[in-house]
Specification:
single chain, 19% strand, zinc ion binding, zinc-finger, alpha+beta, WD40_repeat_dom_sf, 1025 residues
Length: 1025
Amino acid sequence: MFDEGKSSSFRDVSGSVVNVAVVEHVVPKAGPSHALFPQVKYEGFEPSPFNDAPMIEAYAVSVADELRLHEFRPATQPFDLCPVQYTLPAPLTCLAVSSDKMAMGLASNTIVLIELAHPEQVLQIPISRKPTEMSLYKMFLDPSGRHLVITSHQGENWYLFRGWKKPKQLKSFKMVIESIAWNEPALLSSPHSTSTREILVGARNGGIYEAVLDAAEDFFKSQERYLHLLFTLPEKSPITGIRFDLFPPSDPRTALIIVTTPTRIYQFVGPPDRRSEESGRMFLPIFSAYRETAPKISELPGTLIYSELHFFRPNIDQASSLPKSLAWLTAPGIYYGTLNFEQSVDDHIDSTQLFPYPTLSQHETSTASTPLPQVPISIALTEFHLVLLYKDRLIGICTLNGKQSYEDTVPLRPNEVVRGIATDPVRRTYWVYTDQSILELVVRNESRDVWQIFLEQRKFDVALQYAKCDESDDSCAAETATSDAQNVETERIMLEEDLRHFLETYKADLDRDTVYELIQGHGRTDMLLFFATVIGDHEYVIHHWILEEEWSKAIDVLNRQSDLQLYYRFGTVLTRHAPKEMVDAWLRQPALDPLRLIPSLLQLQHAPRDALSSNQAVRYLNHVVFQQSNTSSIIHNLLVTFHATLSPTPSDDGPLLRFLTTAPCDPLTGKPYYDLDYALRLCKRASRIQACVHIYAKMGLYENSVDLALEKGDLELAKVNADMPESDLPLRKKLWLKIARYVVQDKKDIKSAMRFLEDTDLLKIEDILPFFPDFVVIDDFKEEIAHALEGYSAHIDELKKEMDEATRTAESIKQDIAELRNRFVTIAAEETCSVCAQLLLTRQFYVFPCQHTFHADCLISLARECLPTHALRRVLALQTELVKESRTGPAERSATGATDVQMGQPVRQRTLLSTNFVGPALQNGTKAVAPLGRNILSAGDKLRDLIIPDALAAVATAPVGWIPGIGLTGGKKSGSDKDGEKRTERLRAELDDILASSCPMCENVVAGLDKPFVDPGEMDTTWAL
C-alpha cells in the first residue's frame, strides 16, 4: 500500500500545478485491513472533485462489515486491501501497471503516469480530444513500462512512449483494441530499445493483427512500422485475451499463441519466422497454416459479453521464462489450468478445472430469497489463488483445492463504481481501482497454509517445502527427518572437501591417467572434473562438457584458462551450439587471431538463428574491424559476405550499407580494405541493388551507379550519385541528363520532369527539351519555358551592361595611352648614367619612370643579363637585320656619318661577331635567323656573348633628323629607300620594345630576392678581418 509522507507541488506537461503526496511502500500492521476511520492529512492534495460528505456513513458501513467478517478470518490474511492516498483530478476509467509504473486514464481524456519508485513524480498528459468526441476504453502497458497503447470506444488508438510529452495517434489502427500480447523476452532483455518488436493485437471485430511500433524519430517512417491482419475468428467475437510464448527458452523454435473470446479459447502452435528482426511477419507462417485446418478450440457457452485471460509466471527475474498457469473468466466459472510446453503434445493446457463462482451472503447482495452466484467484474491470478472482484468486495479462491480462503469489502463512497483489477506481471503487485479511488491488494503470506493442502493430496515432498515446525506434530516429524537427512548430507560434503584438499595438495605426485581411471570407475564425474581442473587439464574438462552438450559450462571453462589454442580447437562446435556465449568469450580475448576463427564463424552462415537476437558472426567481425582496427582484407570481405547473404530480406540493405559507408579505408590509397570487385559480385548475386550502386560510386564508375539506380527505378538514389563527382562538372551534367532522359522518356511524366529541374542547377529546360516527344502539349511546361526566357532576357541585359562597361573602359585606356605619348621628363645637364656614372647627355640614352637613366649601350649590356632565352634569340636576330640594313642602306650610312661628325666623334666601323657565324647566308635576309638560332641554341649562355652593346646601340638608335614614318629629312628618296627606312624603323621599334619594356635594374632586384648573396663555390673575403 501507500503511506502518506511529505507533499510537493510541481507542473505537469500541460502547465497546470499538480499537488501530490510523496508516498512509499510500507507493511501494514496486523489486524483488520482498515482503521475505523482513516486519519488522512490532505495537506498538499488538490480538493476532491467528488462529494465527500457521505464518507463517514460509507466507512461506517464498511467497518461494520469488516468487523463482522473478521470473526471468521485467520489471524493472518493472505491478502490485505490498502487504500492509496491520491486524489484523482477526474473520474478514473482505466488503469494499467507494469514494472512499478502506473498509467491511469481519466474521463477528461488525460493520461496520468506515476513511477511507483518515485511517487512524487506525477505526469499528466492530455489527449487532444474532447470527452464529447472520444471516451477512453482500455490501456495496455508493456512489461517494461515503456510503451503505452490507449484505445477508445470510438476506435481511435494512441501510442505513448516513456519520456514523450504527448501521445501520437495510431492512424492505421482503425479498430477497438480488446487485448495485446507483448513480446516479453525482447522488451525485458532490451531496456534501451525504442521498439516494441512483434506484438499481437486482438480487436473487437475478431481480428488478430501483428504489429511493430517504434518510438525512434525517423523522418521517413512513422511509429507504426508494421500492421497486418493475420487471422479472423469465425464467430468474429471480441478477442478478450491473447498471449504468445516461444519455447524452449534456450532455443525458441516453437510459438504457442492462446486466444480467448467470451465463450471460446483457441490454441495456435507453430514455428515463427526466425529470420525477421524488427520488420514484422514473425507470426504469419503460424496463422497461415490454420487457413485450411482448425486450431485447438475449447468452448464454454454462455451469455457473458466480456471476459479476461490471466497468466502466472513463477520466474519473473528471467525474461525468457515461461508461464506456469492460466485463468480465464467465463460465464459458467473460472477456467483454470497449467501450461505444458512439450513439443509432442496436442493440447498445451493440462489439469484444467472449472471453478464455479461463490454464492455471496444475502447481506451483500439483493433481497432475493435465494442468492445466486454472481459473475465477478474482474479477476487476478496469483501463485496459489484466484482473486475475484465484485461490485463491493474481494474474494480469494485457492487454486489447489477450489475453496474460498479470503474475503474483504471494498470501501466505497456513495455512487462510487468499481472498475477492475490491474496486475503488475513483473513486480507481482495487484491494484483495485474504482472511478474515484485506487487500492492496493498486498500479498502477505499466501503460501502459509498450502503445506496442509499438499499433505492432504499426498504430495509429501512439496508439502515438506512449505511446512513449518510450529504448525503441527506432523510437520515437526518432517522437520526431524529433514534434520537427519541434512546430517548425512553434511557428512558427505565434509568427505568431499577432504578429498578435494588431498587432490590439491598432492597433485604433483599423482599420476593423471591412474587417478582418472580410479575416479571414473566410481562414477564421480564431479570429482573427476575437479581433479582435471586442479592439474590444469582444461582440454579434458571442455571435451567432457561438449560430450554432455553442456555448452555454457564448456565455454565457462574455456574463459577461465589462458591457452588460445583451445579457442581455435573447440570454437567450431561451440559456436554452432552457443554462438552468443562463444562470441562473448572471443571478445574477452583480444589476442585471438581472427583469421584462425574463420572456420568457427562460417558455422553461423547457414545455421538457424534466433529471431530475437542479432547475428553473432557479424557482431564479432564488427568488433574486430571497428574496435580492434583490423585491416585484413579477408576479414573485411567476410563481413561483407555475412551482411549480403544473411539479411532477413533482399530489400533490407541497412546493415550492409552502413558497413560499406563506414568501413575504414587505407590511408595510402584511400580505398576500403574490402575488395570492391568481390563485394560488387556478391551484392549482384544477392540482389543488393543499393549496395551495388554504392560500390560503383566507390569505384568511380558513376555512370554505372546512376544507370543501375535508374534501372531499378530508384530516382532519389540516382540523384545522390549524380552529384558525387563534384570536381567534374561535364560528368555531373552528363549524369543528370541520364536521369532527365529517364524521367521524360521512361516515366513519361512531364510535370515530374519540370519539378526535376529544381533539384539541380546544372540543367536548364533547353537541355531536356530534346527528350520530349515530337507531339507534346506545351501546357504542362509553358510556365517553365516562360521563366527560362525571362532568365535569358535578364542575362542578355546583364551582358549588354558588361559590354557597355568594357567599351567605356577601352575608350578610357585609349585616352590614357594617347596622353602617355605626350609625356616628357626634364633631365638636368649634370644627370649621369645609372651604370657607367658618366654624363647622360654625351650619348643616346633612356629614361624610365623609376628615374633610372641609362646610355643605350649600357642599357643593352644590363638587359642582356636578365632577358630570357627566347628574348635573347630575338634580340640577336634583330641585331643581324639592323647590321644588314646599315651595310646596304646608303641613307642610313650617310645619316650615321653625319651624326658622328655632328657629335664630334670619329667614325669607326665595327664588325659584329654574330655576322661571321652565318657568312653568306645573311644575304638572304631574315631567313638566316632560323639556321643561326639552331646553331646557337645549344650554346646556352653564349647567346649573351653574341650581343655587342655598343655596336647594337650604334645601329639601333635613330640618327639626327630621323622622323618616325618619314626617315631622314631633306632630299628625295626612291620607293625602295622608303621601304628600307620603314623596315628599319619597324626593327628598331621592336628592339626598343624588348630592351626598354621595363627597368632592368628594378627587375633584377625583384628577381634576385630568392638568390643567395654569395653563389655556391664563390669565395667571399669582404667580411675577413
